Amino acid sequence: MSGTSTISDWRAVLADAHTALLTAVAGVGTQDQSLRTPCEQWSVAQVIQHATGDQMAFTSAITGGPGPSENPFTPSGQLDGEPRSLLDPVLVASAEAWATVEDDANAVATPLPQGPMPAWLAGGACALDAAVHAWDIAVATGQPSALTPELARPLLIVARNIVEPLRTYGAYAPALDTDPGADDVTVLLHYLGRPATWTR
């Protein structure tokens, strides 16, 4: 892990990220599921499957319960039901799992290659995944993005601690150049390899 900054309000950041993901998914209609997204090669339906599977994987790491039934990195694109009805119980289970984690825990299990992390970073990693995929879904379907500067700012701290090793696994694209004075959302997205001006 790089950097020494932490985020003290990681639970609020995680709750906001979950809300952003749920809001974006709730706005997806049947006609939107095949639309392309900032995640190259993946449709909206595939991003929903991936994001849902990732949240299940974080929950499973904490509780020891079952994880996603399919590989989140090879989503089929075939949703078994309405998008929100698939995500709702997953986020409820996630909230219940994170509620069992102590704020000062030093080694919280994660599904990431880095393994256990301090609570703030593990929760932040879960939040980063949810928030960024919320942005992917929102921009792909023409919805307002809930990835605000206030949410992006702490997530950038998390990203700078965990993302570099994950690029080697293909989880994130190479970082993009960012102009001086760019807003926090743009800085975060470009660091994660996503063009902030992406459009359908």
UniProtKB/TrEMBL annotation:
GO terms for molecular function: metal ion binding. It comes from the Bacteria. It comes from Plantactinospora soyae. It holds the Pfam family MDMPI_N. Residues 61-81 are annotated as: Disordered. Coiled coil: none annotated. This is Uncharacterized protein (TIGR03086 family). Residues 14-138 form the Mycothiol-dependent maleylpyruvate isomerase metal-binding domain.
